[in-house]
Amino acid sequence: MIDTIIHTAVNLLKDVGVVVVVAYLVTRTDAYARVLDRRASFRDRLLLTLIFGLFSIWGTVSGSEMLGATANTRDLGPTMGGLAAGPFVGIGAGLIGAVQRLAMGGVTCVPCSLATFFIGAAAGAVYELNRRRFIGVVGAVVFMALAETFHMGLVFLLVHPFSEALEIVKAVYPPMLLSNCAGVAVFALIFANRERERTTAAAKARIDSEIATARAIQRGLLPRTDDLGLGDAAAAALSVAACLEPARDVGGDLYDLFALDDDRLCLVIGDVAGKGVAAGLFMSAADALVHAASMTGRPVDMILEIVNKELWRRNDTLMFVTLFIGVVRLSTGELQYASAGHCPPLVRRRAGGVAMLPSVRGAVLAVDPGLTFAVGTERLAAGDVLLLYTDGVTEATDAAGELFGDERLERSLADIGEGTPDETIARIMDNIGRFVGEAEQFDDIAMVVFRYEGKAGAGRESRPAPAHEGAPAGVRLPARLEETARLAELVEAFAGREDVGLTVAHDLALAAEEAFTNIVRHSLRHSSEPWVDVYLSRKGDEVRVRLEDAGPAFDPRSAPRADVSAGLDDRVPGGLGVHLMKNVCRRIDYERRDGHNVLTLTVAVAAREGEV
Q1: What is the DSSP letter of 466?
Q2: Model-level pTM?
Q3: Whose CA is closest to 260, among 232, 233, 293, 288?
Q4: Mean pLDDT, all residues of the chain
Q5: 407 neighbors 460 (Cβ within 8 angstroms)
Q6: pLDDT band at 589 (very low <50, low <70, confident <90, very high)
Q7: Is the distance from CB of 577 to CB of 518 less than 8 angstroms?
Q8: Which of 104, 326, 373, 576 supports an S-S bond with 337, CB 3.0-4.6 Å?
Q9: Span 169-225, pLDDT tens digits
Q10: Helix, strand, coil content of the chain in percent (nearest 5)
């Protein structure tokens, strides 16, 4: 008897190979995929019913005869159909297997047929009770063991005499329990693995979608080179193109181009240490800070100081940024720039030759809040080309590990000749592509090509102000509100030369801008001489800005004290500006001289040095 049981068990276990094939094929069907997605149709359920029903028949046919009974794996089909696809499939497969077993006849045909049907129904009920989810490998094996025990119980109940039933159960129960539990374990492992595959694929799809969205957002943040917010005259003074090629879906390189006013264009390019989404987010934060700081009218070195302090304060991830910022005055071609450890841009002169911009002092951003930066200046002539780039260009690597390098980049720029900025970028990218060949892109690549055409400036020029004996040279500005940016630039440049510190520079610029705004809005609205003369000077521990205009006489010191709690409609015109001027100035002097208003604003230096 023992030998027979072992032989039967071995034969049944051989069927496990068939179980593996069937389970694998079933889990790859579209019908089963829709079951997992809980959107299976009637046809899907009918197909699975037939598959598991036929597998139940095969389990009977491949079984072994013992004492007038068949040791088999018939219950495996309805069990897995019900546990994996629900009551419809479990009951249907059980009914198919039961009818086939009943047609075979024999002493156990009734209890075995009933057992197969009820096991399929019970498996479907377990699926529903488990919220239409598969119960897992362990759960399936336990269910199968209980199901086979139930099967043998029906044999005891319905086969007579009891002694015959006992002999049958003793012979078939051990091999059937072993083979069915082994088969359901294999089935369950394959089914569970398929669910994990789908879960992983769905998670990857979500991540890919989110990364694609992040890439689209990053692309959307890049400026349009055909619409920089400049007037027609200023736009004619330049042509520009840019590109960004991340090594991954989202990169840590970024460029920006934006107008500060009708005559000045800001060029920015930067590189975060690292790649991917985190680097892209940090770079976007840096760009937003540059934007905000640039709109205050501060010079480029102070912009970097502000950005550096803010990035350092927010730098929990210990990243750092290299960044170049340049401001081009389109009416003159003058470029003022500062660098935070970034690659020096290249200049291709129309007259011939390519060279790097002279390097200026400046370390990377977000590491040391006390950094200061130097300012460089360059004069661009009509036809000159400025190339800004990140180190992904020069550090592009071929299969042998050789870098593209500075020399190849300079040669590429020189060989392009009079090409447009778009053609320049396309040629450089083509040269990089041919150099690296099949090698994988190692780093993000960003480039900006700016060509100065030298045609802007109509109506934008500032003129020398009338000289006064013993007074410093001044500048005459058009009485237009947009000239406040030019005024701020003059004040900041003066403060930088005098080394008076950030706080004093800020206060002097604020006072000058408020005074200039009041003059433009209230004094010179109907004047035939819409100019404001600006003089800057230092004497001892004081810095001064003097503003002269030909408007009606007005002494701002006589303006009523501003009620800062009042609504906008209730405030005296100019009152708030005068209030701000009084707060930041040591002294405000006014006189009416030769039909002109002469306003002198004085800010103390010594008292504020400790704040710098």
Answers
A1: P
A2: 0.53
A3: 293
A4: 83
A5: no
A6: very high
A7: yes
A8: 326
A9: 888 888 888 888 988 898 888 888 888 888 888 888 787 776 666 666 656 667 776
A10: 50, 20, 30
Q: How far apart are CA 109 and CA 138, in angstroms?
A: 30
Contacts of 540 (CB under 8 A, 6+ apart): none
Angle subtended at Cα 16 by Cα 175 and Cα 185, rounded to the nearest 5 degrees:
80
Gap between the Cα atoms of 99 and 82, Å rounded: 17
Whole-number Å distance between alpha carbons of 322 and 308: 10
Residues 116 and 81 sit within 8 Å (Cβ to Cβ)? no
Q: From residue 75, how far is each of 61, 64, 128, 149, 361 by CA, in Å? A: 12, 15, 19, 12, 81
Which pLDDT score, from 0 to 100, does residue 389 have?
A: 97
Lookup: tokens for 144 = 């199968």
Domains of the chain: 2-202 (1.10.1760.20), 222-452 (3.60.40.10), 463-611 (3.30.565.10)
Helix (H) or strand (E) segment spanning residue 507: helix 502-518
Q: Cβ distance 366 to 308 under 8 Å? A: yes
